[in-house]
Amino acid sequence: ALARPARGLAAHGETHFGFQTVSEEEKGEKVYQVFESVARKYDVMNDSMSLGIHRVWKDVLLHKMNPSPGTLLLDVAGGTGDIAFRFINYVRSVRERQLRRKLKHHQNLSWQEIADSYQEEAIKPLGDSQVVVCDINTEMLKVGRQKAEHLGYSEGLSWVVGNAEELPFGDEKFDVYTVAFGIRNVTHIDLALQEAYRVLKPGGRFLCLEFSQVTNPVLSRLYDLYSFQIIPVLGEIIAGDWKSYQYLVESIRRFPPQEEFKEMIEDAGFLKVDYQNLTSGIVAIHSGFKL
Amino acid sequence: RCRLCPPQRALRAAAALRRPSEEQRKEPAPSSSQHHFDSHPADEPPEQGTQDPWASYTGQDGQESEDSASEEQLQHRILAAALDFVPEHGWTAEAIAEGAKTLGLSAAAAGMFRSDGSELVLHFVSQCNTKLAELLEQEQKLVQLGETQKKTTDQFLRDALEARLRMLIPYIEKWPQAVSILLLPQNIPSSLSLLTSMIDDICHFAGDQSTDFNWYTRRAVLTGIYNTTELVMMQDSSPDFEDTWRFLENRVADAVNMDNTAKQVKSTGEALVQGLMGAAVTVSTAARARR
To answer: Using CB atoms within 10 A as the burial measure, which of A60, A125, A192, B224 is most buried?
Structure first.
């Protein structure tokens, strides 16, 4: 078993990398190396570590977002594109439903008008919705773009390299900002939250899907056992990389619990901040609005 | 955490938020809280301490309750703006998104509300009830000042119910959808309390001062009249809903008759009893005198 060190920082300019203490500059580099090495097996490892449940978590995130056609989404640390692809699917089906409902309402349409509506559906299947996937790691983005090609996603998708603490976008550009399982790897979480606030339009929504503190004590012990004994072993067998998965599991323990993270989000200026626990708190979705 | 945050947060607030709170500073908390279906205002009174919410830092609590009061306000403004889009989109999250857009906010702000449109319907019903109460109060003042004649009970009830039902006319096409939303199990406590408080208001202004079981009977009867008239109105296609008002007239007349009959029966019963008692005393006195 591993000793669990206190969450506080040792000294100025130092931070945690899993259970180690490193300087702030080093952390960024080390995280980069972790994701560079796991990039190709990232999706496979996600499935085996969470027994496929991560797909349900991401679906719940999209349902909570409930995006309407015309939404501009920024998915930060979105590397392999899971959230982006789900967003596109969601918006496409909402758009189809909208067009179908419009047709149903206008009972006495001429043939010309009906044909025109088909055209509209063909030209704008997403209704001007766009998603920008931003990640600091080019390897992860590469894997994401290959996946997109493979699955046939072409429209409404952009891939940008960028640092969550210093986003390469102008102010007030996006409707929704999501970060799924990425924010715990950021060196200065408060800077990332401030950047999120900056790039969101007024009325925009911040959504964060992240591992959090388990509420149930029995489940907590099982979860700890699973995390520290089984996941690194899986990492070694499937990805050939014990240490990266050791880091991943430790970084989960270092991330602040739900209430504390909620206060951090409020400090960045978001209002109506709330969180929803999934799977008894193994994962939590935090939501806030820029009002 | 940084103590400088509250005023910073205040400065960053969007113009949409700042404007209403400046108007609100002069007025006390809205008196519609008696019709309010949300438990939020009861928990956090907005009149704590500061008169000038954006200038000085008065304490975390004061700032937080100011924020929640202005969040409430903004939500009301979004819902009020969304009502314009109900004839087109129905009582849905899409209407709320369109409403948010007219206020200059992103459509993602509709995520603040539940995705089934319930809050929009409840907001509208609450608003109608408030308007009705104001109308009845004004009328009462005019009667007290002697400027208008006091109406008979059935005329008063007819006019009050007609005024309330006329508020539905702009949305009458989508009203069946609203009724179905109000009947959803999670909304029944709120919708029921709104209905009962509206009927209570009408009875109160009609001058009902009963302290016996009549209090319940009168309100139950009036609720029945309102609900049935609402249903008739939804499928009425006559010009200016004449059929509905005729139906209402008949129902109110029936109810008032029934009430009068009940009073008559009671007073007849009392008179009968008195008569019998008198006869018994006369007979016994006469019998004693003869002996």
So the answer is: A192
Are residues B108 and A287, on separate chains, in Cβ contact within 8 Å? no
Cα–Cα distance, B8 to A197 (Å, whole number): 13
Contact present, A265 and A193 (Cβ < 8 Å): yes
Residue A42 reports pLDDT greater than 90:
no
The candidate with the shortest Cα–Cα distance to B226, out of B259, B257, B258, B203, is B203
From B14's Cα to the closest Cα of chain A, the distance in A is 6
B167-220 pLDDT, tens per residue? Answer: 999 999 999 999 999 999 999 999 999 999 999 999 999 888 888 888 888 899
Q: How many CB pairs under 8 A join A and B?
A: 72
Q: Which residues pair with A160 in a beta bridge?
A: A134
CA-CA distance, B89 to B92, in Å (whole number)? 7
Assessment of whether the complete model's pTM goes beyond 0.80:
no
Encode pLDDT of B101-119 as tens digits: 999 999 999 999 998 899 9
Q: Cα separations (Å) of A214 from A1, A26, A46?
A: 19, 29, 19
- Which residue of B lies nearest to A63 if distances are taken between CA atoms? B115
A239: three-class secondary structure by DSSP: helix
CATH code, residues A32-290? 3.40.50.150
